[in-house]
Amino acid sequence: MRKAVKRKILDLFTTLREAHNEIRLLLQKEEYVKVNNILADCQECALLAGNTIEQFEKNQKDIVRELEEYCEQVFEISSCLENKARLNANEIQKKLNLYIQRAHEKVESNITAALKVVFMPYKASMWTSLESVWEAAAADEACEVKVVVIPYYTLDFEGNKKELHYEGELFPKNVPVVHFDEYILEHEHPDIIFIHNPYDGTNNVTRVPEKYYSYNLKRYTDHLVYSPYGMMGYYSPKQGAFMCYMSAIHIADKVLVQSEKVKQIYIDHGVEREKLLAIGSPKVDAIIRGMKESKIYPNEWREKLEGRKVFLLNTHLSYFINGYNYQQKYGKEKSYAEWYHENIFENILDKPGCALIWRPHPLLKDTLKSRELYSTLEFIEALERQLKESENGVLDINGDYNISFRLSDALITTYSSMIPEYMISGKPVYIYEGRLNEGNCRKSPMSYINNYYRARRGEGRMLPKFIEMVLNGDDPLYNKRMDDVHRAFTNLDGTIGKRIYEKLKKEFDV
User: Fold this and answer.
1) In terms of domains, do 242 and 216 share one?
2) In this structure, are 337 and 473 located in the same domain?
3) N or C: which end of the chain has fewer CB within 10 A?
4) What is the rounded distance in angstroms from the CA atom of residue 138 to the CA atom of residue 300?
5) For each successive 10 residues of the chain (510 residues), what is the average pLDDT?
6) How many domains does the chain have?
């Protein structure tokens, strides 16, 4: 039997006990017509409970018999009232409660209830925001758990749907994926639904079908849980507040946040304290696990990466777009985004002892197409060809970015939610943008102060020094950076997903 079904049966018993108390009060007032009406309702309620038990539990005849005897007792009381017999109100309440109490105890002790949980991701690259919670649920013998990968549309610049995508085949092989067409929410009605898409109809690049918007999912579950797919590092109220206003945050019963500091940011923007669970981000578990795993190179990467110091180049979704806008506004010959990528490629590709993994944001090309920035798209495709033809460069378009995390020795990146994730690994980070305000850094969920930066706009002169530093195994900011990491995350032992699952089971009483 499902936990939700068992709980509804027990709730029916609670309703009956409340009705018995009302019957006692009405009998004392000699309001017999009202008593008879409530007795009829009690009989219907008990029959519903009995029929439900018979539907889901074929071997619980003792409980059904208790409810049948209860109905007989209700009928006798009703008959006595019709014959105008005087009844002891307290004894009536006591006798009716006794039947229901026995049925309640037998349901509690004899019926094992299974929790029904479904995870509904849409992007394989974002699965780590749910993965360790899923693992905890899958390890629970009392939990029926499924992973239903839902589809999504890419949009054009005007927000019109272009193509429907499905990434079920990109998920790890150990994750048994159920196709969305085979999972009917209306019939399943899971106890808990986990999602990592907060946007509903507001994302301008990708969008899931409306049936999977948070407010529609909430119709078919008792508990909707949102786990952000990105971590919050540097935070500026002017730029970062939008994260607190996503639709799913206000629809969900629980929102998983990475720390108490992030929890307070949400509260400051009007999110109810009670719905925020600050145990940590499940993504941390994936990073901790990846740090412990040995390096296993994909066959097509081995020759280019093995035996070299590997730099992971991460490009944020908006970087090329902002660079293009800047170029157009000020009439520049070249976008700064293009200049910096050329500079990075020149400093690493075919350099002895070095290798480069470029991982652009998974939605970068779709975004450029939707905005019709075809010249920028051509530039990116030229970089891809350059990587393919190089001796030491590869393009990472895998759903799981942890492969690149494990294989790389350092990160080169624009400002991105990947920075706090990579900092947890302990490896050095070079940010090829200007330094952030130091005061804001210290107030942010995670400080970026002790990373490495380019010298100033228009120069890449710090990059060769950073590359040489990594080649030599030097990292003078390591200890300070790890102090920042431990201040930002209270749980770095790889058990966040398990703690979240156990906490939710207890809090939801499921």
Assistant:
1) yes
2) yes
3) N
4) 33
5) 84 96 93 94 95 86 92 93 83 95 92 90 93 97 94 83 90 95 93 94 87 96 94 78 85 95 92 95 92 88 96 92 91 91 94 96 83 92 95 88 91 91 95 82 88 66 91 96 91 94 87
6) 3
The pLDDT value given to residue 436: 80
Alpha helices in 146-220 (DSSP H): 185-188, 214-217
Q: Do 96 and 53 form a contact (C-beta atoms < 8 A)?
A: no
Distance CA 35, CA 27 (A): 7
Residue type, 123: K
Domain-located, residue 288: no
Do 371 and 501 fall into the same domain?
no
Q: Which of 237, 293, 284, 302 is nearest to 443 (CA)?
A: 237
- 130/227 Cα distance (integer angstroms): 7
Q: Which domain holds residue 314?
A: 295-488
172 plus 49 within the same structural domain: no
Q: Are 123 and 229 in contact (CB under 8 A)?
A: yes
| Strand 223-226 with 276-277, pairing | unpaired
Q: In what order do the strands lie in the sheet with 393-395?
A: 393-395, 354-360, 309-315, 410-413, 429-431, 452-453
Q: For residue 216, is it within any domain? A: yes
Task: Indicate the SS3 state at residue 130.
Answer: coil
| pTM strictly above 0.85 | no
DSSP count for the chain of H helices, then E strands? 22, 16
Q: What secondary structure letter does DSSP report for 189? A: -
* Residue 27, domain CATH: 1.20.120.660
